[in-house]
Design brief:
4-stranded antiparallel beta sheet, 7 helices, single chain, 20% strand, alpha+beta
Length: 274
């Protein structure tokens, strides 16, 4: 199933999507304190990311992607981080997942993207916290995972567990299969809503498992479905940038704020001169 966005027939340019991100900065700055108080992103922020199609940027093209590869996601993340660190963090995490889904078997991709290209997915990558028992057609998955950023508005989760037959891997699980436990009382980045996920033994079909072994080699099941160069690289050569890019944006935001305050001081000093 192919799903195209508003830009059907013409790929977005890198400059265009970064411009869209830049236009959101004033609103994100104004909401940053509320995000900290809510301990998750305001609904208006999530709506803005969807309205501008920035959340589709990482999607495979056949599922509403904008015709650009994953490095553009990193540039957009840095731009968003200048205004709100929590927004940049969640955007980067959600986007990395939508890119990652493109490596799963086609059946899993259809289940995930089929209802809407604007789908969101949280994650918990500590495989030691999950348990997966093989059964007919898949696995019985259970566990208690922490640090699932952006989980409140996500309709899926990628949960890590060790399997006895394929080693560690990432299971794609719908929201109906797990519970969210509010444990997120951090000193910073509160707006990421990085809460716990708890799951009782639940059946997950085998096509919703992506093993670490295939991720490490770059030979994942979905590799042949998409033309992007990033889908032919080892996953672990890309995912670390998901964490680094929000931090760069936050640092640039600090520099921006310092420069703005310094300009204001200089202007005030100039006004006081005879």
């Amino acid at each position: 199933m192919a799903v195209r966005g508003k830009l059907a027939g013409a790929a977005a340019s890198r400059r265009e999507v970064v411009r869209r991100a830049s236009e959101l900065l004033p609103a994100l700055r104004a909401r940053a304190r509320r995000a900290e108080e809510l301990r998750h992103l305001p609904d208006e922020t999530v709506a803005d990311l969807r309205r501008t199609e920035l959340l589709r940027l990482a999607n495979p093209d056949r599922y509403g992607g904008l015709g650009l590869d994953y490095d553009t996601v990193l540039e957009v993340t840095i731009e968003l981080g200048r205004a709100c660190g929590s927004t940049a963090w969640c955007y980067s995490v959600w986007s990395s997942h939508n890119w990652l889904i493109g490596l799963y078997p086609e059946e899993a991709q259809e289940e995930y993207f089929g209802p809407s290209p604007d789908v969101l997915c949280s994650s918990a990558f500590n495989a030691a916290l999950g348990r997966a028992e093989p059964t007919d057609g898949g696995y019985l998955l259970s566990g208690h995972w922490d640090l699932s950023s952006g989980c409140d508005v996500a309709s899926w989760a990628i949960l890590a567990a060790v399997t006895p037959d394929q080693g560690p891997g990432l299971f794609l699980v719908p929201r109906s299969a797990y519970q969210i436990v509010d444990t997120w009382y951090a000193s910073g980045l509160k707006g990421t809503g990085s809460k716990d996920i708890v799951m009782e033994p639940t059946f997950v079909p085998s096509h919703r498992l992506l093993s670490y072994a295939t991720m490490a080699t770059g030979h994942c099941p979905g590799r042949a479905l998409h033309d992007r160069p990033s889908y032919r690289l080892p996953v672990f050569a890309i995912l670390p940038f998901t964490i680094a890019s929000p931090l760069i944006g936050i640092a640039q935001g600090a520099v921006d704020a310092y420069e703005e305050r310094l300009r204001e001081r200089i202007e005030r000093a100039g006004d006081s001169l005879p």
